[in-house]
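User: Here's a structure from my thesis project, written as structure tokens. My advisor, Dr. K., wants to see whether a designed sequence matches the one we expressed. Can you design one independently, without my sequence as a hint?
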């Protein structure tokens, strides 16, 4: 009885990992921060300069978690920056994001295989990400 229960639980766990991988790979625009409170006042002026930060997920997350655990437990020394980039940096995605932002008219101020920072006007953000930015009253 317990053998079959273990097999069932193990199978469900393995199947759930596939869904995580699918959700993890879907690019999306979203707000990360505290819950927005207050009342929407008006759209942000179209010429307002805004800084955006785009995170690029590391590749090979399982190995990253494993190495982080080994470093935490004192089993290995921390990786060098070049090792981190070669093992986990998504250089292709970085180039893709930078190219997209420049094509859309943004000024890229920082770029790494893990994140890109750019500055652009509100109208550029609204067009590129099909969104609208607003000011809020608290």
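Assistant: Designed independently from the structure alone:
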């Amino acid at each position: 009885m317990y053998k079959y229960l273990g097999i069932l639980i193990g199978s469900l766990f393995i199947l759930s990992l596939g869904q995580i991988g699918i959700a993890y790979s879907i690019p999306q625009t979203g707000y990360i921060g505290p819950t927005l409170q207050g009342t929407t006042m008006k759209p942000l002026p179209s010429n307002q300069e805004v800084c955006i930060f785009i995170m690029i997920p590391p590749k090979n997350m399982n190995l990253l978690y494993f190495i982080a655990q080994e470093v935490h437990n004192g089993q290995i020394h921390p990786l060098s920056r070049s090792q981190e980039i070669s093992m986990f940096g998504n250089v292709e995605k970085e180039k893709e994001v930078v190219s997209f932002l420049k094509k859309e008219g943004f000024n890229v101020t920082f770029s790494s295989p893990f994140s890109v920072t750019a500055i652009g006007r509100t109208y550029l953000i609204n067009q590129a990400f099909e969104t609208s930015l607003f000011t809020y009253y608290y």
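When you compare it with your expressed construct, this may help: The first helix runs from residue 2 to 25.
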